[in-house]
Each structure stands twice: as structure tokens, then as C-alpha cells.
Amino acid sequence: MSGVGPVVDHHDGVSVRARVVYAAARLMLRPLLTYWPLNPIGMLPLPLVDGLAELLPNPHDTEFERVVLPGFRGEWARAEGVEQDGAVLYFHGGAFIACGLATHRHEVSKISATSGLPVLSIAYRQLPKVPLAGSLLDCLAAYRHLLDSGLDPSRIVFAGDSAGGHLAFATALSATAEGLPQPAGIVALSPWLDFDATAKIAHRNAARDAYAPVSRLPFLTTLCLASKGELDPLASPVNRDLSGLPPVLILAAEDEMLRCDAELMAQRLADHGVPCTLQIWAGQVHAFPVLGDLLPESRAAIHEIGTFIRDVTAPARSTPLAPAPHALAG
Predict the structure, then answer these.
(1) I want to staple 275 with a disulfide (CB 3.0 to 4.6 A). Which of 51, 85, 177, 247 is the partner?
(2) Up-side HSE of residue 114: CA atoms within 13 Å toward CB?
């Protein structure tokens, strides 16, 4: 194992918009998510989150194409001028209980534009329909779909936010177990990677996170793993054998509770000799790149993501790399 640590980049500029979003999330979302009942009745209206997002206008410069996969749906997002010479396979976040294609449509549109690749966003099955194992089966099936369509794995990148960041790593690890090739890279935004909440509960960010309540994690873990017994450490990607994974980019907000998981995974990837860059962004909410054009920091982060994807797929691509802007815009 390597003794070299991960590359850690700190982004300290905080826009006025970001401060407003942080305060609003703290005031309204945190109380709601802290007390919302996580039972069959409480989870019944959660699909409405994605349904309401469907009412938003689609990005005008991106073509969307629905895909029917075995037991679930997907959607291709192709920004203007992007050709099918590879793919970003995107796993949305939402704590394995909420969100979907519509909630992340603007983000994947921007990722397609900045990376120069189409994005296949998938609506994997979630709680309470299936536990985590069912979600992972869908994600692996989506990867098989890309491979079966003839795409070179060196032109495929896994990406996801929060629960989707977990799935990005878990799918890559499952691919190895199934004898499938690794993708060219992994992008994880505020990923939930360690089901043991002990460190997160004790961390100062448990009280500083804008809206994600650490108190709900143990119960969510029980639902995800469909088990009330002793927690299996290998259920958490941070505790698995990470050797052989492709280069990784991890983004996290400075004050979010899942910064613990991001830092732990970055170090363990480095220990296993996997190239990893960890970016810590000040003043942002959990999974802030999902906000797309709403924040200048979201736009800047998506450009960072696009540059990483271009870099890891560059040897297999014929298109030139586009430089990413180094300053926040707007």
C-alpha cells in the first residue's frame, strides 16, 4: 500500500448566493428532514419530489432521450455538439429514498457540456421498494448496458452525489467482483460511504451541516441494509479493498457531515495506491453541484468535474481537452 496521501484542494471563496442558500437550507430544510417520518406512510409522498421537478423547464441546449432498462428507467442527456463516443453514468442522490431523473436534469446537462460526453442518468429502484442491494443491481445493470452497447470502458466515467456517490464506488467494486472492466474514473459529490455513523455524530459538522441531519443515519442504514443486526463493515465502500479502482475526484462541502466520509475515502484510496483528488468547498451545502446554474460555485465545481472527466478519458478520445475556468463566474 502507498504511504502518499491524497491531493487536497481547498476552495475558499463564498458568493452571496451561496450564503443565502446555506441560510435558507438551515432554516427550512434541516427541521423538515430532521423530523420527517421515515416509515411507509412518510415515504409514500417522496416520489413527488421528482414529480415536482418535472414541472421545471428542461435545459434548452441539451437533448434528453428516455431509456428503458430492466425494471427501471434511464435518460440520456446530450449537450449541444456532444457525440456518443463515451458516457458518464450518473447515479442521483436522495438518501436512497428520494429524487430521480428530473431533480438532477440540470446538473447532468452541465456535466455533459463540460465533459464533452453524453450522460446516462438512471432512476434506480429505491427504498421502500428495494433495499440497497436492489439499487446496486440496477446500477450494475446500467453499466452492463453501456458495455453491451459497444462502449469502451476507458470512455466511461461513474459519477454520483450523496447516496449516488456511494453507488458510484459500490458499482465499481461490484464490477471487479463480476469480472467486468473498471471505468476510466469515478466522481463522487458529498458521498455517503461509511454506514458507521460514529465519527460523523462526534464531528463538529454534525451541528454545522446546512440541512442533512446526522441523527437519521443509523435508521436509514437499517433500512438500506434490510438488517437490524450487527453492522457489516464491508457494507461500506470505505472498508473494501480499493486497489485497482480508477482515478477518483471527490468534492465535499467544508461544513457538511459527510465531509468525514470524503476525507476517509480519499485517504484510503491513497493508501491503496489509487490516484485521488479531494476538493473541500467552503460555505456550501451538501451536494451543491446539483444546484447547477443557481450558484457560481456550482458552475465552477461542474467545470472541475468536466475537466477531470476529460483528463481520465483523454487517451481514448480524439477531441481536444478544453481548459476549465479557474475563477468563479457570475
Answers:
(1) 247
(2) 24
